[in-house]
Amino acid sequence: MSTIQLFVSFCVFVLSAGEIQEITVPNDAWDGTHSVLCATIKVAPDSYIYSFQPIRKPKTVRHISVALCDAELDTTKVWDCKTPKEVCPNGYSDALWAGAKDAPGWNLPKDYAFHVKKNYNYVVVQIHAPVNMTLNSTKSFNRMGVKLGITTQRPKYIAALALFGNMGFIPANTKDFPADTACNWKYSDTPLFAFGIHSHTMATAITGYVYSNNSYTEIVRADPRYPEPIINIDDRNIVLKDTDILLMRCTLTNPNDQKAKFGYEHTDQMCNLNLWFGIPKEYGNAYKPFVCGRDAQKFSLEGHGFVLPENANKPDIEGYKKLMSQFNLTMTSY
Fold first, then answer.
1. Does the fold of domain 162-326 match that of domain 19-151?
2. Are 253 and 269 within 8 A, CB to CB?
3. Engineering a disulfide at 296: which of 70, 179, 239, 331 sits with its beta carbon 3.0 to 4.6 angstroms away?
4. Domain boundaries, the chain
5. Within its chain, how far is the Cα of 245 from the centroid?
6. What does the pLDDT read at residue 18?
C-alpha cells in the first residue's frame, strides 16, 4: 500500500440534530499518478450516520463511496485503493454508501442510520477519478470527498447494505447479454428501504426482484443512462422474509470485437444493484455484510427455474424518468 504524505481535511460542524464531519482528499494528491484514492477519519463508537453529501466539482470524479473499516488507519494520509481489500488494509470493510455520475447526496429515512461500532469506527472515503487525473487547488475548490451527518441518537432500525454484482465477462459482439445473480435472504422481518445502482458503459438495464411464494415483486427496472442516486422506498413497505430469494439481472451490450470482463479497473465493466435494509433487532451483532455475486458464464436465473417477467431485460423508461425527476436529473454521458 503506497501512501501520500498530505494532510487530510477533517472538519466538524455541530448541528441541532447531530454534527457534520468531513472526509476529504486534497486536490494536490491528484498528481497524475493515481486513479483511485482513499482517506479516513476516526468516529466515536456508538455513533450513527444518517446522511452522505458529496464534496466535488461537477464532471471531475466518476464515483465516491464510503465504508466502515475495523483496522487501525492513519488519518493523516491518503492511499491508493483500487480494490475492496485496499480500502481497508489489514482488515474488513462494510460498505455504506456510493454515488456516481455526479449523483446527489443521500439522507436516510428518519427511522434508519448506520451504526459505528467500537471495532468498526474508521470511516473511509474512496474516490474514483479519471485515469491519472491532475488536479490543482484553488481558493474555492481544494478538496473532494463527503460530508457525513452523525448523531448519538439510536434510530429505530440499524441500516445495512446488501451488494449484488457479477463476475466473468460479456462476450464480444453481443446484444442484450443477461448477467444474473440470486441469493437466499438470511433474515426475517427485514424492511427494505432504499436501492441504488452502479454500472460502467455497457449496461442497458438493471432489474431487481423479490421472489416470494412463487411470485415476483419488482424492486426496480433501472435505466443506467442516468446519474446514480440512492432512492428511498420505505413508503413501499417491502418486508423481506428468510424464505425469500433476491434476484438481479443486468442486461448488457458489447459492440466490441473483444470480450469485456467484470472488474474494478476503469477499462472493466461493472453492474451492481445495491439494496439498503433495516437489521432486525434479534440479529444484532450477528449481522455480517451481505454480498451476492455470480459468474455470468456459469449462472442463469432460467437455468435455476426462475421465469422472470417479460420486461425483465428492459428498463422502465417512463417510471425511472419520474424517479429521477425528484432530483432534477436527466440522462448523462459522463
1. yes
2. no
3. 179
4. 19-151, 162-326
5. 21
6. 77
Specify whether the CB–CB gap between 48 and 113 falls below 8 A.
Answer: yes
Q: What is the pLDDT of residues 104-119, one digit of tens each?
A: 999 999 999 999 998 8
Using a 10 angstrom Cβ sphere, with 0-12 exposed, 13-18 middle and 19 or more buried, the burial of residue 193 is buried
Which of left, alpha, beta for 170 (phi over 0: left; psi -120 to 50: alpha)? beta
For cell 432504499, the residue is 194
Rounded Cα–Cα distance for residues 118 and 32 (Å): 37
CA distance 25 to 40: 9
Tell me which residue of 71, 22, 26, 78 sits closest to 51, measured CA to CA.
22
Chain Cα centroid distance, residue 83: 14
In total, the chain counts a number of residues equal to: 334
Contacts of 70 (CB under 8 A, 6+ apart): 88, 91, 92, 93, 119, 120, 122
Options 3.40.50.300, 3.40.50.2300, 3.20.20.70, 2.60.120.230; CATH for 162-326 is 2.60.120.230
Region 19-151: CATH code: 2.60.120.310
| Burial degree of 176 (CB within 10 A; 0-12, 13-18, 19+) | exposed
Place of cell 442497458: 204
25: helix, coil or strand?
A: strand
Measured distance CA(193)–CA(231) in Å, rounded:
9
Distance CA 277, CA 255 (A): 36
Residues 233 and 194 sit within 8 Å (Cβ to Cβ) = yes
CA distance linking residue 304 with residue 83, whole number of Å? 31
CB 295 within 8 A of CB 178: no
Average pLDDT, integer, range 171-193: 96
Which residue in 72, 124, 118, 135 sits closest to 97, CA to CA?
124
CA–CA gap between residue 195 and residue 81 (Å, rounded): 25
| Cell reading at 182 | 440470486
